[in-house]
User: Fold these one by one.
Assistant:
Number 1:
Amino acid sequence: MSVLSHAAAAHSPAGTPHCALLPRPFPTHTYAVGDLLTDLRAPSTTTLRTAALSARDYDDTRLTAYYKDVASISPATGNFTRSHGGELLIRKPRRAGTRFCSISAEKASVRALKDPFGAFEKSVRDPAARDWLLRAARARAPVYWVAAVRELTNASYAHAAAADAGNGLLAVRRASFGEQAAAEEAELREDENGDVDGEAMRRKMRGHRRRDSAFEEPTKTKTDVLGAEIREVRVKVTRPDAPHAPRDLKWKWTYLKAADENGEECQVAVGLGAPLDQEEVADLWEEGDLAEEDEEEDDE
């Protein structure tokens, strides 16, 4: 699926950040405002973090005390796929086997930018960024930029019990420890066909049982990164005298002077796209995680 399926304006004025829910909680500083990445799923090895931005560029005014949320959990990967806010009544998901997580935190804070495009220009004009963008363009690698980050302080995560409330709605509440234990035991006893020796048990015995990573892979940090505004970046290497792209709704462009692999002067056109929506962010991880799982099964 293309991550450009929506056509929100890339150059709208700064407003409320579009922080999509990430697939799981990440340790503090895994993603930071101003980061450039080629693979969102591997930030430790594909991120360029420069010192181009300063405290004056950030907007740290958005704080929420006693944060609460309910998140959908993918039955295929165990990833968070959608935020429902603090609602107790939510629409039934179309995907069979979807579970829910109750999230609560002492505090939620969002670091955004006062002038997103101005900050983007600062980020990509850093000398290290110019070389990095050239390498990404030569490798035809996707490029993303982090424009905002949501962090939770002292967060806790638990399965949410869901009950039919009629009219296509589910009533959700935080499950007790006993309910969570019973649900896990039932999952091990039988698979979806009621076969006690079925796939669920075989996966458990092989050590490949799908885990809900939010619960079984703690970040071990007081503050978790759970949301981010992620924007796609387009990079084109052109002749130094190439005309600039016309203004459009999907991209806002800036232009850099650089030297190519032969030392010849070139122009690097760098376009900033609109924030990826929740479905697009979830799909980036879902498709990647499922592909990795298929590779692991092929190797067995």
Number 2:
Amino acid sequence: MNLSALQKLYRSFRTSGKLIIDGSRAWVPVDAKIARAEPAVVKRPSPIQVVERTTPAPPVTVEPMAMVAVPRATPRVTDEPNVRATVRARSVAVKPPRRPAPPTQSEHDFSSNIRQPRRTFKHVVGMADTKQRLLRAAHDVLMDDDGNVEPRNGILLFGEPGNGKTLFAEALAGELALPFLQIAFGDTASKWINDTPEKIKAVFRTASETGACVLFIDEIDSFLKPRDGGANVHSMDRDVVNTMLTEIVNLRGSTVILVAATNFIEQLDTAGIREGRFDYKIEIPPPDLKARVNLIGHSICKNLGPKTVARATAEALASRWDGFSASRLSALGGQLREMHRDGQFSGLVTFDVAMQAMRLLQGRRGRLPEMVKAVDDIIMPMASRNVLRDLAYRMKKVHRLEQMGGSLPRGLLFYGPPGTGKTQAAMALAKASGYAFLKTTGADLIARPDSWERLVREASDIRPAIVFLDEADDILTDRRYSNVATLTNRILTTLDGASGRIRDVIFIAATNHQDRMDPAAVRGGRFSEKVRFDVPERADMERYVSATLWRIANGQYSLERDILRQCMVVLAGRSIADADAVIAESVNRAATRAIRENVAEIRSADVVAAARSVLDDRIADA
């Protein structure tokens, strides 16, 4: 019998004598009276505890002076005359508190979302065509003047973010003097399964019980996700879409005007936006000129005080910022207030100050590298440098230029041999004028044709900007011999402004092969102004190489006496890019020798070896 069995025996029976344990043996006296013991129940302090009564062991026969073997582990000896039986408690996990039951359908109430509109169409300056279309659609819903049998409803507002879709919906309700019930997806989202569809039903039920009102669903793309995504579509999304479509149809013929807004009409479920659910699709465009003037003036005067901007200035800014969203124009005053507080200007807001504030609001300047040369530091023909100087000045003074009847070119063509600084000149022009800089290549556009539209949209968003098209002959080659003529047409159409000319965006195309360009691309109104680049003259190259060598040496290297002469021999008729490559390779060779031999000197032999490696292995010593 092992120790566990012995302990069970001892707990099940009580004897008048003592159990004698001697080492590995246990002794029970012969005359011991053995009686079955009543098990004791031990109460635990835990709030929920199920206590199990120990089942008594079956009767046993104790032989006189029976010897029972036990394990050699030293037993714990107790001084108690009678050890009461303990009852082993079964481990029971404490039950967590019960979760509240999901709300029932009757508990969903959206009456608190109903309010009286604070605006009418008189608070929306300009945008007459948009307001007229909205009002006409609302009247069709409320009363069928033409006696149409089939009722119509559902006004879908779409367009770029920040143009006031919510404002127009509320102003429509105010114009009609109707209650305004506005919801977003967050109002109906729920952690409970099937609770979101029930909330959507409750929203439409609240609108129907209200009677004539405007029900506005903001960001409806959260409710009408496409259901054709296969396995990627969650079942709950399908339920939400199905419920929404059913409720929209049920709303037809009532006096509830359903208005929904989205920034992504192409991402909506196609069945959700068809006729019969949304009969009116109205684009909310960026503010027109009248609206822009009002937004600019109101924002500035609200933040800086009345009469802090001249109306002529506001009109000039508004004409330049065609396409900017209403939210961006409304934020202009806050940025000007911050600049005024920091002492960046005083007095009235001028055109240049407002342009600077808008650049700060945009928060980015494209992809212009940090180490960009100035126009005067680029080695190029003097006539071409003067063209760039004048152009940079005109770009900085564009407001005054236009007042005097002048204008900026729509596009420029930089042409000349490879490595003559065309890309550097474009970046220098952006730096000198303060324009943002965006760059692409003909090969990139051919690989991703849709990237052109994205590039133009980005340039319009961060303008004034320069769009630089490198290796343009790849994409603007003569269309009679091109397999990308369709893409060429799209680029030329953009320059023509067929969809509306974008102010303050200049397109620059660079090519090494002007003769390959399509004649239609270089005609007037497109890439009409041409700037020639060429290899530098000997005097210009000598000044550039001398300045570069002395800058690199800068106390680290000594220069061999005739090194400049050797450079001029190998770089005769070469471009600045070739000169940079030869000098860099010469320094690499000198640096290797300095580490190996501890001799820091740039030698003529380094220049010759570098020229053979970079330019032509047939170059000989001078």
